[in-house]
Amino acid sequence: MDVTTYRRIATEEAFAPAELLECYRRMLRDGQGDKGFQSLWGFYLGSTAERPRSVVRRLADLGAERLADMAAAGIDHQVLALTSPGTNVLDPATARSMATLANEVAAQAVRDHPDRFTALAAVAWQDPDAAIAELERAVTRLGMCGVIANSHVQGTYLDDQRFWPVLEAAERLDVPVYLHPNTPTDRMVEPLYEAGLDGAIYGFAVETGMHLLRIITSGVFDRFPHLRLVVGHLGEALPFWLPRIDHFHAAQVASGRYPAMKALQLRPSDYLRRNVWYTTSGMAWQPGIMFVRSVVGADRVLYAMDYPYQYVPDEVRHQEELPLDAVELREFFEGIATRLFHLTV
């Protein structure tokens, strides 16, 4: 193939079945969910402003409007993922049924438009046995290319070993786990919420960057060395902290200050270079992209838009103006995603 041509593959593109949105509406009416959920989805489902209304409409559309938006932006292919918080705020029975429904909806969209969509599996993380069974079904029968983890599950993180069998299944199936932000838990949201910082402006990065560090320091990647994890927004700032993270991890292990902080086989930064991939979702910023490429490796950084939450058609053009040659641009927009998600279209 001519290296000057490539498909632009966007790898963090959200959708939501109408049934899930209606479930969220019921939860809001009944006062269910934590403060972050009430804040985020109370806004999107309750506001009359144009932007939240357009986001909700686009989340539920896996047809004409989404395809038109992709064409307007120059996106050739989307990797679909169930929007945050997905099933994570639901009771186990509802989470199981909603994950199955979401996977069927996404699989139908892929069948309808196989050249335009692939999808990540949704699972009920609250029920690890069911999550494993659904992940296996989604990958082996529906052809899905990974699994979405919408961060904490009602305040519990994936460093908790009850979730590790699901991570083991992802490693065995050779599919990546996409760690996507959720709103901060009630234990950390209050100072963010009172300043209006609990969402994408900062709270998501605080919550998800911490989650990724918890996964690393718990020894997940020593236990599952071939597990692949994808994180958006250029790594939620962690690439900018690599030397400091390594220094104080070593110091805290040596001091024995924290029972949870154990010695690892490698430095934390080594796992961030070996097991983690970084998408540019919501971060169409040349200095940041080039910096992250320089510290984690150019083969770890790939394109995503964060549709429909941050739908900015011109960002594709801006990222095509990165100081990269034709081969590097093809890798950034297509090659890395194709290998990471085992795409065949």
From TrEMBL:
Sorted alphabetically, which InterPro entries does this protein's record hold? ACMSD (IPR032465), Amidohydro-rel (IPR006680), Metal_Hydrolase (IPR032466)
Under Pfam families, the record lists: Amidohydro_2
From what superkingdom does this record's organism come? Bacteria
Name a biological process GO annotation: secondary metabolic process
Q: Which Gene3D superfamilies match?
A: Metal-dependent hydrolases
Q: Where is the Amidohydrolase-related domain?
A: 66-343
Record the organism.
Pseudonocardia cypriaca
- What molecular functions are annotated in GO for this chain? carboxy-lyase activity; hydrolase activity
> How is this protein named in the record?
2,3-dihydroxybenzoate decarboxylase
Question: Mind telling me which PANTHER family this protein's record contains?
Answer: 2-AMINO-3-CARBOXYLMUCONATE-6-SEMIALDEHYDE DECARBOXYLASE, AMIDOHYDROLASE-RELATED DOMAIN-CONTAINING PROTEIN-RELATED
Provide this UniProt record's keywords sorted from A to Z. Answer: Lyase
Annotated GO CC locations: cytosol
